[in-house]
Amino acid sequence: MEALKYIIHKLINFFKILIINFLILYILLFILEIFFQIKNGNFLSESKYYYREKQSNSENEIHLAYMPYKLLSSKENIIPVSGISNAHTIFCREEKNSEFHQYISDEYGFNNQDNQKNFDVLMIGDSYVHGLCLKNEFGLVSNVSKYNLSVKNLGMSANGPLLEYATFREYFKAYEFDHLVWIFNPDNDFYDFSNEIKNEILIKYLDDLNYSQELKYRNDEKDKVIKDYLNYEGRKTKEFLKHYHLDIKFIRKNISKLADSIKTKSEHDLSLNDQTEKQDEYRIKLIEEIFLNMKTSLEKRNVSFLVVINAIDPFYRFADVNHHQKEYLIIQKQTDKIKEFLKINDINYIDFEKFVRTNYSHKNIDKIFKRVNHEHREFDHYTANGNEILASMIVNFIKNNN
User: Which residues contact 65 (CB under 8 A, 6 or more apart)?
Assistant: First the structure.
């Protein structure tokens, strides 16, 4: 009995010491967190969540921008491919502590100023089309429209090829248009696709050419699923911890960055993700199948089809970490296969990747990609000038191939 009491006493003391040491470590990390947040100009900066809370008395329904990939692993019986419909949408900042870019979503939840059904150009893609962290007037879609073309934006941030194909299938019949422009983003489209095909709903778009979620007629249901995900009430504690830096996010990110710098595997090398090289080839074939299916659908409606091969993010092109350099080579190899396929199958494409690689070095790449004051990245999406250049190439192609 005495021996048992002794063991219990020792265990209690051990856990006391463990808890005290944990608290001391946390306090030290928290002090470091505050130091770096002040140094980086992020101390107590207003998040999108708190900005929305301040605007909540507005007459319009206000929501945070939503990214469809967030629900890929959910068990919902619907996968929204757009945001909340007819909502004042808070997007993102261009610079630290600057104003949040915002837009009013259209009837289906996309970044359009009207619900026009007849127009010249339909554009599909990820954040480059959606207009991430730029005023709408400087985005790619707005720059194309400056050439006296009416444009519909069906882009959503972080969408990969299968979500974009689902977007096309769900909504293209609702419109009358002459040209479809698909922005293919090599940086993450191959990797995003490898995750998207795991979703039981999305894979049906590949298995059945007649499959549809009928999202045009399920707006209320779609909006409810997104609102449930955003869960403003349920995330109050999390947002409180984040706002006051109690989540030591900066420290955690830098630990993650350190781990990332010493790893040897590349997320873009799908064969290193328990995939064989044959499976990697299979996924590229599925992407090619999407392009062929779209070409066939558009030819039936006498609509021209243009694919834009986006420039590869400087993060990979000018990487100083070995496995990121490897990722760049992998992305290039995969992209070359897509280009060759498009060429063989007479699908028009603009090679913006080659244009940027040929004409811009690390010294002047900031004319195309925004140089950002960020602790983890040197560059972000296209500058206003980058969007202007790409828009002019798209418009010239459309007008010369009418």
Answer: 48, 83, 89, 90, 91, 92, 157
Q: CB under 8 Å to 199, separation ≥6 — which residues?
A: 72, 73, 79, 162
Same-domain status, 175 and 315: yes
295 and 168, same structural domain?
Answer: yes
* 193 Cβ neighbours under 8 A, 6+ residues apart: 160, 161, 162, 283, 286, 287
Find out whether 380 and 392 touch, Cβ atoms under 8 Å.
Answer: no
Q: Cα dihedral sign for 173, 174, 180, 182?
A: negative
- Domain identity same for 203 and 224: yes
The domain that contains 270 carries what CATH number?
3.40.50.1110
Burial 356-380, CB ≥16 within 10 A → b, else e: beeebeeeebbebbbebeeeeebbb
Q: Give the range of the structural domain holding residue 211, as residue numbers without chain letter.
A: 48-400
State the pLDDT at residue 194: 92
Domain shared by 8 and 134, yes or no = no
pLDDT for residue 272: 43
243 with 359, same domain: the answer is yes
**Residues 329-340: pLDDT tens digits?**
889 999 999 999
- 4 and 144 in a single domain? The answer is no
pLDDT digits (tens, 9 = 90+) for 156-189: 999 999 999 999 999 999 999 999 999 999 989 9
Parts of the chain with a pLDDT under 50 = 270-274
Q: What is the pTM of this model?
A: 0.89
Q: What is the pLDDT of residue 59?
A: 66
Number of independent structural domains in the chain: 2
Rounded Cα distance between 386 and 368, Å, is 4
Q: What is the pLDDT of residue 377?
A: 63
Residues 92 and 2 in one domain: no
